[in-house]
């Protein structure tokens, strides 16, 4: 149900603010955003609460003996749910980021900037800060009055309470962010004990200040002047893109406009209450047409619908629609750029799934021992040493068998099997020996093969070199 607002309140608030014309919003100054309820705002609030619950909750959930999501930089392990990734899997991160970019492009072509209005972290935290501002400082017209009036104790305690709430939210945001890189339970204990690591303390402080400034003070300036998406998203719009639009053919001329001549015989549905401007978080007037500052949050849609309900006019004077629909034409959903983005997105998803399915849950790094190129034994054999890093990327324990091939009589000295726990990393020093008489050149290619005894499909073959003395002709 749309929020009902008495018509007399609209003119009262407009008189309180004495702002500049709606076509020239004060985008560089403070914007007094009016709280609005309605269908789209319920969707936005529920999606915002869900996103914040995920952000703050994921670091506290454990998967076995480790956090569910944990980017362990010291061990160079990145745990995402049941999977563990390593620096050599960085290509996967790049792939996922490109995948997200194409997904955003596809959404933009179809529905404009719904990402900005409903899911962008800047918007989510800004709306949260505005929610506390409404609760602690009162409705919009009261905030305007208090800011224009001389300072009083009532105004002071409200300001202090508001900024205290903002700082607490910002602090929780900073702690949660650092909690993705260090176990959050230990981090919180260390914070209360004032025994936190200086690096962790720096990043908690940095993101606390960053969140407080962005969501509390900068707000719309981030969307207007710092976000690159606001600048290039219009290049993906076309006449069939779903956007928040004002139906000028139905709304003009406005009722409060001084009409003359033939225009005096007709009055549009817009009563020029400027409620759509008052609820806009970026301070624009949607009646001026499509603007890059619009984040598609639909606050103006709910505001206008509430007024239309009060004046017994059809809803949808401001609505989600397309330019073609406003011109009375049929909107075309399927169009070339949509096929291009959808095809690219589906292709990358298929390739990513295929790559993950083919990914063998074992990683091996082989590095030659740098202390000596080789050793010559008394019996004429040549010995080479290698430092091996073996990672079990599977969710269960495996025992691996190690073999070496590439030279006649090549033998492995020491243990030839090793057990590695799930997601464990083991470091080995492996030695290979070969008959010096069979070495025809100073460097021979050899292979170290690791095979899981319980699952032969888990195999890793690493190439290296076996060095020997330089023989004279």
Automatic annotation (TrEMBL):
<keyword id="KW-1133">Transmembrane helix</keyword>
<dbReference type="InterPro" id="IPR051684">
    <property type="entry name" value="Electron_Trans/Redox"/>
</dbReference>
<feature type="domain" description="4Fe-4S ferredoxin-type">
    <location>
        <begin position="261"/>
        <end position="289"/>
    </location>
</feature>
<keyword id="KW-0479">Metal-binding</keyword>
<dbReference type="Pfam" id="PF11614">
    <property type="entry name" value="FixG_C"/>
</dbReference>
<feature type="transmembrane region" description="Helical">
    <location>
        <begin position="47"/>
        <end position="63"/>
    </location>
</feature>
<feature type="transmembrane region" description="Helical">
    <location>
        <begin position="338"/>
        <end position="356"/>
    </location>
</feature>
<dbReference type="InterPro" id="IPR017900">
    <property type="entry name" value="4Fe4S_Fe_S_CS"/>
</dbReference>
<keyword id="KW-0249">Electron transport</keyword>
<protein>
    <submittedName>
        <fullName>Cytochrome c oxidase accessory protein CcoG</fullName>
    </submittedName>
</protein>
<dbReference type="Pfam" id="PF13746">
    <property type="entry name" value="Fer4_18"/>
</dbReference>
<dbReference type="InterPro" id="IPR032879">
    <property type="entry name" value="FixG_C"/>
</dbReference>
<keyword id="KW-0472">Membrane</keyword>
<keyword id="KW-0004">4Fe-4S</keyword>
<dbReference type="InterPro" id="IPR014116">
    <property type="entry name" value="Cyt_c_oxidase_cbb3_FixG"/>
</dbReference>
<keyword id="KW-0812">Transmembrane</keyword>
<dbReference type="InterPro" id="IPR013783">
    <property type="entry name" value="Ig-like_fold"/>
</dbReference>
<keyword id="KW-0411">Iron-sulfur</keyword>
<dbReference type="InterPro" id="IPR017896">
    <property type="entry name" value="4Fe4S_Fe-S-bd"/>
</dbReference>
<keyword id="KW-0408">Iron</keyword>
<feature type="transmembrane region" description="Helical">
    <location>
        <begin position="90"/>
        <end position="111"/>
    </location>
</feature>
<feature type="transmembrane region" description="Helical">
    <location>
        <begin position="200"/>
        <end position="218"/>
    </location>
</feature>
<keyword id="KW-0813">Transport</keyword>
<dbReference type="Pfam" id="PF12801">
    <property type="entry name" value="Fer4_5"/>
</dbReference>
<feature type="transmembrane region" description="Helical">
    <location>
        <begin position="165"/>
        <end position="188"/>
    </location>
</feature>
């Amino acid at each position: 149900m749309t929020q009902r607002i008495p018509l007399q309140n609209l003119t009262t608030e407009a008189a309180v603010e004495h702002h500049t014309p709606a076509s020239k919003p004060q985008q560089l100054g403070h914007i007094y955003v009016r709280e609005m309820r309605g269908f789209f705002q319920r969707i936005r609030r529920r999606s915002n609460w869900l996103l914040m619950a995920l952000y703050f909750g994921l670091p506290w959930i454990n998967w076995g003996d480790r956090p569910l999501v944990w980017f362990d930089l010291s061990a160079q392990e990145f745990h995402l749910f049941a999977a563990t990734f390593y620096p050599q899997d960085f290509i996967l991160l790049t792939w996922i980021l490109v995948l997200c970019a194409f997904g955003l492009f596809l959404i933009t072509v179809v529905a404009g900037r719904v990402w900005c209005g409903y899911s962008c972290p800047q918007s989510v935290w800004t709306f949260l800060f505005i929610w506390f501002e409404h609760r602690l400082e009162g409705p919009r017209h009261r905030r305007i009055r208090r800011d224009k009036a001389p300072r009083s104790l009532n105004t002071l305690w409200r300001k202090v309470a508001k900024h205290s709430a903002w700082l607490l939210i910002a602090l929780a945001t900073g702690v949660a962010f650092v909690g993705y890189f260090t176990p959050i339970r230990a981090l919180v204990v260390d914070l209360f004990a004032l025994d936190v690591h200086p690096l962790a303390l720096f990043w908690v402080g940095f993101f606390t200040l960053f969140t407080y400034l962005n969501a509390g003070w900068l707000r719309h300036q981030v969307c207007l002047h710092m976000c690159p998406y606001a600048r290039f998203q219009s290049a993906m719009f076309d006449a069939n893109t779903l956007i928040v639009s004002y139906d000028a053919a139905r709304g003009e001329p406005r009722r409060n406009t001084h009409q003359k001549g033939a225009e005096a015989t007709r009055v549009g549905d817009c009563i020029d209450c400027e409620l759509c401007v008052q609820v806009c978080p970026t301070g624009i007037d949607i009646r001026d047409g499509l603007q890059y500052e619009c984040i598609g949050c639909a606050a103006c849609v709910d505001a206008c619908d509430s007024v239309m309900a009060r004046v017994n006019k059809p809803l949808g004077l401001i609505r989600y629609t397309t330019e073609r629909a406003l011109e009375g034409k049929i909107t075309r959903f399927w169009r070339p750029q949509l096929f291009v983005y959808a095809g690219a997105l589906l292709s990358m998803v298929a390739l990513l799934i295929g790559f993950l399915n083919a990914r063998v849950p074992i990683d091996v790094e082989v590095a030659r021992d740098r202390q000596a190129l080789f050793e010559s034994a008394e019996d004429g054999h040549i010995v080479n040493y290698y430092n091996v890093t073996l990672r079990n990327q599977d969710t269960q324990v495996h025992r691996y068998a190690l073999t070496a091939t590439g030279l006649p009589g090549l033998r492995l000295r020491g243990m030839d099997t090793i057990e590695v726990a799930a997601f464990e990393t083991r470091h080995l020093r492996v030695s290979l020996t070969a008959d010096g008489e069979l070495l025809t050149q100073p460097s021979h290619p050899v292979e170290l093969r690791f095979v899981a005894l319980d699952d032969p499909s888990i195999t890793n073959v690493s190439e290296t070199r076996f060095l020997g003395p330089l023989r004279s002709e």
